């Protein structure tokens, strides 16, 4: 059975056609990178898969179930971190995790496991308002992982992180991959991240899929690596270290 089936979805915001007929299916344990330039429709697509936005047309099934009829079931099997996750500034890391844990009836034991996994031990009593960007990203990942999700959605989880923090986050995701219990959809502007973590690359632009497959199958003489493939397809460069590569 597929973990995720996306069938010909469309989504417009007034006259902006953000997603224009996207379809794919993802198997259990697959790690998939969704790539595309700014405004390509990645976040809109992911938020529809997460049940946060409804497609104007088309269908999305997670483990064969639609959001319309199975919201409660589906919330319990997914984990997500948004492109810009905002937590209450006045709660500590520990309190934030306890709050989100309570939605899944999880206790302090799981919260402590997550704090250890995300390397936030020394900051657990700090208020969210005092955290650095990287620490906030780790907290967002921790919240996403609390309920041991079968399907994990991460929208630009490492944007703005220093190389060291990025590697730390990759390490956590690689552990998850090795456990083979989680399916991951990740959006990123970092080519290296997609290459090192994901088995499959989907490149979208202007709301449509341009390429979908294993990286080695997508490359050829004109596109010898993911960077070149991306530029050839979209006419734009991927971002390296947060800056546009010209
Ligand atoms: N709530 C909204 N109202 C109006 N337009 C929107 C809304 N959300 C997204 N859009 C538009 O839809 C298009 C796709 O946006 P989306 O956020 O999905 O892009 P993205 O691929 O995630 O880009 P980025 O790499 O910058 O995060 C953009 O043109 C954007 O301006
Ligand atoms: Mg986005």
TrEMBL record:
- Record's keyword terms, sorted: ATP-binding, Nodulation, Nucleotide-binding, Transport
Q: Give the stretches traversing the membrane.
A: none
Residue ranges occupied by any ABC transporter domain in the UniProt entry: 4-231
Any Pfam family hit? ABC_tran
InterPro entries associated with the record:
AAA+_ATPase (IPR003593), ABC_transporter-like_ATP-bd (IPR003439), ABC_transporter-like_CS (IPR017871), ABC_transporter_ATP-binding (IPR050763), P-loop_NTPase (IPR027417)
Family named by the database record: Belongs to the ABC transporter superfamily.
Put simply, this protein is called: ABC-type multidrug transport system, ATPase component
Single GO molecular function: ATP binding
- Write out the coiled-coil annotation as residue ranges: none
């Amino acid at each position: 059975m597929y973990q995720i089936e996306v069938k010909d979805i469309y989504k417009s915001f007034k006259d902006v056609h953000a997603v224009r007929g996207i379809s794919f299916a993802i198997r259990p344990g697959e790690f998939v990178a969704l790539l595309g330039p700014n405004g390509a429709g990645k976040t809109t697509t992911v938020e529809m898969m997460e049940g946060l936005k409804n497609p104007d047309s088309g269908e999305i099934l997670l483990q064969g179930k639609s959001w319309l009829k199975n919201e409660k079931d589906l919330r319990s099997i997914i984990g997500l971190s948004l492109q810009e996750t905002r937590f209450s500034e006045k709660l500590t890391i520990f309190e934030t995790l306890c709050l989100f844990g309570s939605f899944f009836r999880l206790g302090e034991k799981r919260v402590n496991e997550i704090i250890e996994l995300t390397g936030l031990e020394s900051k657990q009593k700090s208020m969210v308002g005092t955290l650095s960007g990287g620490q906030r990203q780790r907290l967002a990942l921790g919240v996403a992982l609390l309920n041991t999700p079968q399907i994990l959605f991460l929208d630009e989880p490492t944007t703005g992180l220093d190389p060291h923090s990025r590697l730390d986050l990759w390490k956590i995701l690689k552990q998850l991959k090795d456990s083979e219990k989680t399916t991951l959809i990740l959006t990123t502007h970092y080519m290296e991240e997609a290459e090192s973590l994901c088995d499959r690359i989907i490149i979208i632009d202007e709301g449509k899929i341009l390429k979908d497959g294993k990286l080695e199958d997508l490359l050829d003489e004109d596109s010898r690596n993911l960077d070149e493939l991306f530029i050839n397809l979209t006419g734009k460069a991927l971002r390296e270290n947060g800056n546009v590569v010209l």
